[in-house]
Amino acid sequence: VHLVESGGGLVQAGGSLRLSCAASGSTFSINAMGWYRQAPGKQRELVATILIIARGGSTNYADSVKGRFTISRDNAKNTMYLQMNSLKPEDTAVYYCAAVSPGTPAYWGQGTQVTVSS
Hints:
Elements: E1 2-6, E2 9-12, E3 17-24, E4 32-38, E5 45-51, E6 59-61, E7 69-74, E8 79-84, E9 93-100, E10 107-108, E11 112-117
Parallel strand pairs: 2-11
Antiparallel strand pairs: 1-3, 3-8, 4-5, 4-9, 5-6, 7-8, 9-10, 9-11
């Protein structure tokens, strides 16, 4: 499975961005996907996860982004999204998408930089 993120950039506080993660390869094996982020000097942290539709499509969010971020997935396009609204400077980080298939290590994208100016 190959994952490619896009959509990062520079935005002012209060603004919005939408990240995309395009998956290719053995995508039929994926049963969950998620977004993670890593700020300078900090550990990588979970932002949001989503089960694929066949498994209910349920979502989960970090407390710090609840009510501001929305994760979604378009199975027909093999693409996952992260709509980020009301962005704060503390949301500045490299955002990574990840995919999980049974019996294999997680797959990771290369990351996309999100910078929120105050």
